[in-house]
Write a structure and sequence with these properties.
Layout: E1 31-35, E2 44-47, E3 60-64, E4 66-68, E5 72-76, E6 82-92, H1 96-101, E7 105-113, E8 122-125, H2 134-140, E9 143-150, E10 153-159, H3 166-173, H4 188-193, E11 201-204, H5 216-224, E12 228-234, E13 257-262, H6 263-271, E14 277-280, H7 282-301, H8 322-335, E15 340-345, E16 360-364, H9 371-380, H10 384-393, E17 404-408
Helix pairs in contact: 6-8, 7-8
Length: about 400
C-alpha cells in the first residue's frame, strides 16, 4: 500500500550552504536542470531563460496566478507581550475576494505565536516607532480578538477603523511570510521577489516558487513558439511547510487548499487530446490532477466535492478518461450556470500515483523527507535520486529561492 511508504527512503544530504537564502539579482539568471526524453533521461544543465526551447511546440503551459499576502500581523497586549497572528484563510466571509474587501471587520483562521501569553481579551496592533506610517496605523486602531480554537489554529476576529479594506490593512500592517528554512526575517527584497511576475489573485501564504523564475521575456518566448498559456488559482497554505513527522506517509495528514478554475480552462482540458501539458509548480500540479477526480465525482455522484487525501488510490481504480471526467464537470457547470469552479483539494501525490493530466513539470528542488519530494518520486520514479545527486554535484541552489528543473513524466 502507498500509505506504507517510508519517509526515510525519500531523503538526501542537503548542506546548509546549498539553501538559497536570497534570490539572484535577476529572476531568469537561475539554472535549469533538464530531465526529458530529449536529454535521453539524463540530467543536463541549462539556463532558465532558455526554457521555452525545451518544451514541445504546440503544447500547453499552466501557471498558478495566486498572490502571496502579508499574512503575518503583530500585536501587543497591555502587559507588553508581543503576539504574532499568522492568517491562513478567511472564515467570515469565506470568499477570499469578499474577505479582502471588508472595511470594518472579518474573521480568519490563524496560527497564533506566543499563544500562551494571550488567554483572553483584545490585543492592539504593534506599531514600531520607526515606521513612517506609524501615525496612520494608530488612526486605524486595528484590534484582534480570539474567539475560538481548533487544534493548532485559532479563529481571530479583526476590527479596525477608517474605511480601509482588509487587503489594505494587510498591506500596511503585515509582513510577507517567507519560509522558515530561510532562517531570517522578511526583508524589502522579498516584497517583490517572493511573488511571481504574473501574481494576480490574493490569498496565498507561500509562493508557488517554480514561477519565481519567469519574467515577461520567458512568457513572450512561449508565445513565439506557439505554446499556449493558461492560468488557474490555488491558494497555497501554511501546510506546505509542514514536515512529515510519521515514519510512513500514511500517518501524515495532508492540508486542504482552495482553488478555482474557469469553464474555459476545463474545456481546454477536455479538448486537449494528445497535446503535452506542462505544469509550472507542484501547486498547479495538485490542482490539475485534482480536477480529474472532481470530474469523477460528477460522473459517480452528480456533483463535485473535496478531493480527499487518499482518494486517488482506491482499490477499484478509475477507468474514466480525462475527456470523460472533464465532460461531466462541464455538464455540471452548465446545469448550474457556472462560469468558474471553486473547490478544495487534500490530494497527496506519492509513488504509485497515476498522472492523468500533466506531462512535464517545472519545479524547484525540495526539502528532504517532504511531501513535495514524494511528488517528484511519483513523477520521475527512482530517477529522482540521480536528478538530486546531479543538482548537488553541479552547484544548483535549493528550495524556494533556488534553481529550477524541467522534468518529463516517467
Amino acid at each position: 500500500m502507498v500509505q506504507d511508504i517510508r519517509i526515510e527512503d525519500y531523503t538526501y544530504p542537503l548542506p546548509e550552504d546549498r539553501i538559497a537564502r536570497y534570490p539572484l539579482a535577476q529572476r531568469n539568471d537561475s539554472k535549469l536542470l533538464v530531465y526529458t526524453k530529449s536529454t535521453n533521461r539524463r540530467p543536463e544543465t541549462a539556463k532558465f531563460r532558455d526554457i521555452a526551447g525545451y518544451l514541445p511546440e504546440n503544447s500547453l503551459v499552466v501557471f498558478n496566478e495566486t498572490k502571496v499576502v502579508p499574512a503575518r500581523l503583530f500585536f501587543k497586549k497591555s502587559t507588553g507581550a508581543l503576539i504574532e497572528i499568522f492568517c491562513l484563510e478567511p472564515i467570515s466571509p469565506t470568499d477570499y475576494q469578499l474577505a479582502f474587501a471588508q472595511t470594518e471587520s472579518c474573521c480568519w483562521k490563524a496560527i497564533v505565536g506566543n499563544s500562551k501569553r494571550w488567554k483572553e481579551g483584545r490585543v492592539q496592533l504593534y506599531i514600531a516607532s520607526d515606521r513612517p506610517e506609524a501615525s496612520l496605523l494608530e488612526e486605524m486602531s486595528l484590534e484582534a480578538e480570539r474567539i475560538g480554537n481548533e487544534g493548532e489554529t485559532s479563529t481571530i476576529r479583526f476590527s479596525w477603523k477608517g474605511g480601509w479594506s482588509f487587503s489594505q490593512v494587510m498591506e500596511h500592517c503585515g509582513r510577507i511570510p517567507i519560509p522558515p528554512y530561510l532562517k531570517r526575517e522578511t526583508e524589502t527584497i522579498d516584497l517583490e521577489r517572493y511573488q511571481t511576475c504574473y501574481a494576480l489573485r490574493e490569498g496565498s501564504v507561500a509562493a508557488p516558487t517554480a514561477g519565481l523564475h519567469f519574467t515577461p521575456r520567458e512568457l513572450d518566448a512561449l508565445d513565439a513558439r506557439g505554446i499556449e498559456r493558461y492560468n488557474l488559482c490555488l491558494h497555497v497554505g501554511a501546510g506546505t511547510f509542514l514536515p512529515v513527522k510519521s515514519e510512513t506517509i500514511g500517518g501524515h495528514p495532508m492540508h486542504s487548499e482552495p482553488f478555482s478554475v474557469s469553464r474555459h480552462f476545463i474545456q481546454m482540458l477536455r479538448d486537449k487530446g494528445e497535446r503535452p501539458l506542462t505544469a509550472v509548480g507542484t501547486t498547479s500540479t495538485r490542482c490539475l490532477e485534482s480536477l480529474y477526480f472532481i470530474g469523477v465525482h460528477c460522473i459517480e455522484k452528480g456533483e463535485p466535492g473535496l478531493v480527499e487525501q487518499w482518494e486517488p488510490y482506491r482499490e477499484s481504480g478509475y477507468g474514466y478518461t480525462l475527456r470523460e471526467a472533464m465532460t461531466a464537470l462541464i455538464d455540471y457547470m452548465d446545469r448550474n450556470a457556472l462560469d468558474s469552479l471553486t473547490s478544495r483539494t487534500r490530494i497527496i501525490i506519492v509513488p504509485g500515483y497515476r498522472f492523468r493530466v500533466i506531462d512535464y513539470l517545472v519545479t524547484n528542488f525540495h526539502q528532504p523527507q517532504s511531501t513535495l519530494l514524494l511528488l517528484i518520486g511519483a513523477f520521475v520514479g527512482e530517477a529522482w535520486h540521480d536528478i538530486y545527486d546531479y543538482a548537488l554535484s553541479n552547484d544548483f541552489r535549493f528550495l524556494s529561492y533556488g534553481d529550477s528543473s524541467l522534468l518529463q513524466k516517467e
